[in-house]
Amino acid sequence: MTLRVENLGYRAPGGERLLDGVSLTVAEGETVGVVGPNGSGKTTLLRCVYGALTPAEGRVLLNGTDLAGLGAKARSRHIATVPQDGQAGFDLTVRQIVAMGRSPHKRFWEGDTERDDELVRGALGRVGAERLADRSFAALSGGERQRALVARALVQQSTVLILDEPTNHLDIRYQLEILSLVSGLGTTNLLALHDLNLAAYYCDRLYVLREGRPAASGTPKEVLTSEMLAEVYGVTAEVAVHPATGAPTVTYLPASR
Amino acid sequence: MSTPQPVRRLIQPGGGKIQPVRRLRTSPKGDRPSHRGRRLLILTGLTAALAAAILAGLALGSVRIPPSQVLDILTGRAEPSPFRTIVLDVRLPRVILGATVGAGLAVIGTVLQALVRNPLADPFLLGVSSGASVGAVSAIVLGGVFGLGAALSTAVTIPAASFVGALVSLALVYALARSGGGGFATGRLILAGVAVSYILTALTSLILVTADSADHLKEVLYWTLGGLGSARWDMLALPCVVLAVGTALLIALARPLDLLLVGEEGATVLGLDTARFRAAVFVLASLLTGVLVAYSGAIGFVGLMVPHAARLLVGAAHRPLLPVVALMGAVFLVVADLAARTVAAPQDIPVGVLTALTGGPFFLWLLRRGQSHEGMAT
Q: What is the value of ipTM here, to two decimals?
């Protein structure tokens, strides 16, 4: 399933332009990262794609079908989302939160079946959170919550996965595990990422945003250059290809030395 | 390629048509047996408690009637006697109305709490009951003015006006309390509820004092305090039917109600059309509040305390929660009403005064405790 974003624009309720002329393509089975400094529009872009925001201009197409024409339910059968801040005001268990991922496939009055339970157990296992199943979601640490939300996206069984900073709050071990898991699923993945080295290693291609506009795009090798880092992020950095991973690695150099 | 198969069929490369997904149906409920057993035990216990409360409600009061005699009267084995009239025509309708209103208010409270994602919501605190009161009082007063006094028309117009009042006030509080991010901070929610409640209560008073017919004044005033003293057999049908249908519908809507708990964005990405569903819940909750308030007046805090206690027993997921909430609410109000007419007998205290006396401190405790919880901070 190919995800295409065409010329997307979004204005904040106050009129401020948060996104302007952003286009991107995620081919079937590809993992594509969106990077950029804070406030560059990564989250806004993702929220437009997964339907939390209605873009002012442009379209989001899934295999040529405009997502604006789909209802929330049809959309959520195709696109699973891990939003940045998952929260629950009430005491739901992790199992209950993860099982919510089955909702797009249910009529509203339907309960969960044995098969749903198996999917939930399997997904919790894949993110290493089986032992959290009966814990209260609200009482989890940020990292544990993040893993539960990835599990919820897995039981949604969608072909497109959208993850907003999935490695936030995670220990480095789980950052690597979650990203390996997601990039190994074979799904069409769109991720917003902060860590450029992780982005370089796990993403097939990267899009760089600056102030809501596209600044660069291409393979990590093409995109991650000292010039781009100086221009977009305003930092001095060296980029080298790591001999073990074959991916570009960024080393930041302190400005005053 | 490990792409999940069932979903792939959904969008055909050419047409982009969505087809319904056929699902495997192995068992109707995926709960583990231990959970189900526990739930069954809780429901059985609460049903027994309700039966006991009803029996006590029929036996106790200004005249004490032995429970064995109450049972004889209920099963039709007793001779006609003053006791029989007291049990069947005075206490039984009152106890049934109490159970209905208690169950209904608790269910409404639960649903409102999911709607605003805040455990401090209650139809009384959010001004929904006050809105229903304005509607009901205007219907009574205007009904007097336009000569619509016939029993049949008031039986319909008062609950209908009450429902409209509830719906308007709920929509108003919701719009006022909603902060920028779509969430509901406790402070904002309570302020909006209190403000709307004050305005509507003042409106009720204004309608009352400017109304020509002063003869209804005491009756209406008593009614606004929340009481079950006016219960009669011929008025039970509507609240009972509305409660049964409304609660059954809400239990059927348990899945989307659960989705509301993870917030608007979370619910949207899980496929819920939040605007439409919220509107449906608004109407259902207002209908329940409107009809119940039309018969019992505004009884506060039942919808606050009962859901809280029920969540401690069975958790926050609505399918197991709502039946427990309904039963607990029924038990609570039957017992509270029993206390209301016995503690100061022969004086009949409005039960709303009693629930406020217990619920107010509970609310303050919840508010205080909430300050140390994230997500509930103002």
A: 0.88
